[in-house]
């Protein structure tokens, strides 16, 4: 076929299927790609991590894909860390209503994370109690173990982080602004948490040695844990709660880098130091460099685990470097959702890579975290527990405005329906009934 023949031909009609295919592909292209690197050095061998880049919101539908990255820093054994790694994602997903779209799923996620964390803690304690009966109070079987959890869900440009304990997740955005997406639940550093634990019946103090000399960080007694939130820890009062701090942000289309790591990193490096130590390098190498830098600074004092996750704009293969922004541009990189499209300063901020903050809540009160506005009734007239998703008749559990299980004089429960078991857990977390550990020994 000669050149003139080709140019004189009329363009063929494009079949509809091809057009739809193109549309689907271009939609796909607009999604960022996610690349992860991991590095670790073990001292006690109690750090665990989870990398699941290929989850699907609707099984079998690749367009509903999302990814999960998590760190579990265990203490007093490894069974809590392993149990959470194996079960938490399923428990979170089971708390998400069926048949909802992507926007609804992102909105439902913070609440589902709270339910999933609490359910995982209840299940672990139930399993531990069972072991306890089998092994006749042999404390070396691991049922006193606990773990921090930093659990990151990435769907498109939206990043949702839920955490208990002190394994941090930081965000390094293009332009060199570093921000913390988690809160440290350490009694030493968190006044609010100290007050909450004390009000719920715990004692906060340092370890006493050498005739009354106080050493080390602030701990919670009984148990001696330095953290105010964790999963597991059956030997500690139930005011050490598994209710996570949750933060959800939407990145600009320049992407960003997450560094998720156990305290082996953060006791050695500030957020800025960690981000700076690996900037401009691919995720796989970056994780190794962060661990190396922490080791160089402090030596191997603790388990040290690091995940580096790059959220990369579609047309790039690695996170693109961008010029530094002027320092005085804004004090915080987080911008609130613009109220209307006429919000000109907001669109300017978007242009320089501002991160849109969608959600943040850290309350340890379950009623404030599960919401009242959800219909928990099933089609069969039963009520579904907001935490464990078990169906019960309303008379078996508690619903809006009923009193607590233990004390009729306490404030009424204002959250959605809870089954008997989860209601007991709620009251124990608020210090309104004896904790699981006390109940075990009586
Ligand atoms: Zn329940």
Our estimate of the beta-strand percent is 15-25%
Helix and strand composition category: alpha+beta
Q: Helical region count?
A: 12
Distinct ligands: zinc ion
Give Rg in angstroms.
24 Å
Q: What is the terminal-to-terminal distance?
A: 92 Å
Q: Could you characterize what this model shows?
A:
The chain is an alpha+beta fold and 442 residues long. Among the domains are: 30-133 and 141-184 and 228-314 and 354-364, 4-Layer Sandwich (Phosphatase 2c, domain 1); 365-403 and 413-432, no CATH class. Helices cover 30% and strands 25% of the residues. It is built from twelve helices and 18 strands. Strands 2, 3, 4, 5, 6, 11, 12, 15 and 16 form a nine-stranded mixed sheet that branches. β15, α9 and β16 (355-361) form a beta-alpha-beta unit. α3 packs antiparallel against α4. The protein is globular. The N and C termini lie far apart (92 Å). Bound molecules: zinc ion. Keywords: Hydrolase, Magnesium, Manganese, Metal-binding, Protein phosphatase. InterPro entries: PP2C, PPM-type-like_dom_sf, PPM-type_phosphatase-like_dom.
How does the SSE layout of this entry go?
Blueprint: H1 3-8, H2 16-29, E1 33-41, E2 47-56, E3 65-75, H3 79-94, H4 102-135, E4 146-147, E5 149-155, E6 158-164, E7 168-173, E8 177-180, H5 191-199, E9 203-209, E10 213-221, E11 231-232, E12 245-250, E13 256-261, H6 263-266, H7 271-276, H8 283-298, E14 304-312, E15 334-336, H9 344-351, E16 355-361, H10 366-370, E17 383-384, E18 391-392, H11 420-429, H12 436-441
Parallel strand pairs: 15-16
Antiparallel strand pairs: 1-14, 2-3, 3-4, 3-5, 4-11, 5-6, 6-12, 7-8, 7-13, 9-10, 12-16, 13-14, 17-18
Helix pairs in contact: 3-4
This protein binds zinc ion (ZN).
The site of zinc ion has 8 residues, from helix 11.
Cofactor: Mn(2+); Mg(2+)
Catalytic activity: O-phospho-L-seryl-[protein] + H2O = L-seryl-[protein] + phosphate; O-phospho-L-threonyl-[protein] + H2O = L-threonyl-[protein] + phosphate
EC number: 3.1.3.16
